[in-house]
Each structure stands twice: as C-alpha cells, then as structure tokens.
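Whether sequence alone determines local backbone shape is best considered at the level of individual chains. The sequence in question and its structure tokens are set out directly beneath this paragraph.

===
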Amino acid sequence: MHSTLRRTCVLFAVALLATVAGCGGSGLPSLTGTVTIDGKPAPAGVAIQFSPTAEGGSPSYAQTDANGKYEAQFSFNKNGIQQGEHSVKLIPGSVVTSMPEIGPDGRPVGPPPKNPLGSLPKTYWEEIEVIKINAGSNTHDIALTSE
C-alpha cells in the first residue's frame, strides 16, 4: 500500500517537474539570438517585435543587451514566443543615444551623438524577415546592414 502511494507521489512530482522545466515555466517556446549591424553587435536597447503571421496570435518583444544579444518576451513577466511563423521588425525610437558632452560654458562639445540605427533601411521597421518558431528552444540571429 505504501509503495503504491509512494510511486504515485514520485510519478506526480516527476511529471510536475518535467512540465515546469521543459518550457521554462511559461509553456511557450523560447527564442534567443544576436543582432548585428554591419557585422558588429548591435548596441544595447535595440527593440524587436515578433508578430505571428497567423490571425489571433500575440506578438513577443525583445531588446538587445550591450553585446547585441536578445531573448524574446511574451509579456513583462513571461519569457517566450508563440509557435509558428512570425514577421520580425525593429521598433522605431528604441535606442536612446547618449547625451552630448557639455563644456564649461554649458554648451555641447563636439558633434551631437549619432543614432546607431539612423543608417538602416526604413524597411527594417516594416519587416526584416519572416521566421518559423518551433516547440522548445529556438535561436535566431538577425543580421542588419546599413544602406
């Protein structure tokens, strides 16, 4: 009797652990990658939108770190992305440029900081590409080139 109950509890615990660990707890596939601009890692703060091409889906978003790496997020507290095809695009205004250096006279010193995304084709804000997301872990690098 005790061994049957023990086996049932162990099986339940293993099934619960597999469910939580298998999908990172969100129940959604994961998506990570690196964004490059002209072969170099994109700066921190480049925002990307992954929109399902099928009706009824919800988009996921990502933002690059200082090494150009990203991880898709389904919501503020849930990592992941829906399975299926997604249109990938940049989100305008996503990179904050640094403030100019101010001299002792209170005026900017040198030229104003350049927006690192300013030389990219405008089509990147409409669609870069369409990618397919499978169950489990997905990796996709995004290579952008200047005009």
Observations:
- The helical segments are 2-22.
